[in-house]
Amino acid sequence: MINQGKFQAITGLVLLLCMVLMTANSWGVQGPLRFLKPTYQDKPPAIVMVAFGTSTKAQITFDHIDAEIKKAFPDHEVRWAFTSKIIRDKMNKIYAKKKISKRLRSLQEVLAGLEAEGYRKAVVQSLHIFPGGEYVHMQHLAQIPGINVSIGEPLLATWEDVLKLLEDVAHHFPKESEGCAILAGHGTPNTYYAPSTAVYLALDRLLRAHHRNVFLGSVEGVPDRKDALDRAKNYPGKKVVIIPFMLVAGDHIMNDIMGEEADEDGLPSWAMELEAAGKNVECPSIMLNGKKYLKGLGFYPAANKIIIEHIRQALKDLK
Fold it and tell me: What is the pTM assigned to this prediction?
């Protein structure tokens, strides 16, 4: 049973709270629970770049793309998200051990952070090459309450995009009399869920129609390693230029494709197998800050222009 003193104290607190709420309403404050809601501001939509990620030195490709995006959209906040939990965990442990104030975040973390900062709109820009399983999964992850999201198309969303990029990449194709080139893609092991396998086969058909000495191969899909290497071995001419057809020339390119040692199962890299067949193998590279990096698609001007165009379209879709 509440005694009279406690009752009077509780009554006084209730009256005081009512006075505070009445005063707040008279000042035009939007409700007593406003402090539980994010404070939204009239900010330009944020841009979230989404990539699988890499733990290799090819991370510098992301730095190059980041600079291009910020130059094209100076009024927009640009953030990065990485879909691979394995990559995020590995790199975050390295950053923590070296006491580097950097952290790789998932797409959900980045979007939740933006919403908490008062952003109401964001472009989620895919850095996937084709609309494969990773892209479809990203689309599902991009939907969170409180923020309106527009998704930018993957790099090669249209055949117009494909032709623009191939025109840039073609500078590395050798003359037919010298040898051949292999476009080394990632591929997908699935025959369902996403259209990327069909796109790879259509791209292979396109290359055959326009370039007699350019072949397509992939690490995890079709056309596969054997398709590409057999055609390269049988092509006259000693030179074989292996061109990374991935955004970054990371682990797959550095080890599975251009590695100098066989893997743990004894399988030689693509380059090793071709060299054993008497071919001279090379891979396009780029020099940055005095260091040499294998050239992923993220370093090609055409690729960055396509990405920027896709962001512009996604921004229009938000309006």
Answer: 0.84
CATH architecture of the domain covering 159-295: 3-Layer(aba) Sandwich (3.40)
Going from N- to C-terminal start, the domains of the chain cover 46-157+299-318, 159-295
**Class of 46-157+299-318 in CATH:** alpha beta
Fold match, 46-157+299-318 / 159-295: yes
Return per-residue pLDDT of the chain as tens, 319 residues: 555 555 555 555 545 555 544 544 444 444 444 444 555 567 899 999 999 999 999 999 999 999 999 999 999 999 999 999 999 999 999 999 999 999 999 999 999 999 999 999 999 999 999 887 788 888 888 888 889 999 999 999 999 999 999 999 999 999 999 999 999 999 888 877 667 888 899 999 999 999 999 999 999 989 999 999 999 999 999 999 999 999 999 999 999 999 999 998 999 999 999 999 999 999 999 999 899 999 999 999 999 999 999 999 999 998 7
- Which residue's entry shows tokens 């020339």? 249
For residue 188, what are the contacts with CB-CB under 8 A and spacing of at least 6? 132, 133, 194, 196, 197, 220, 221
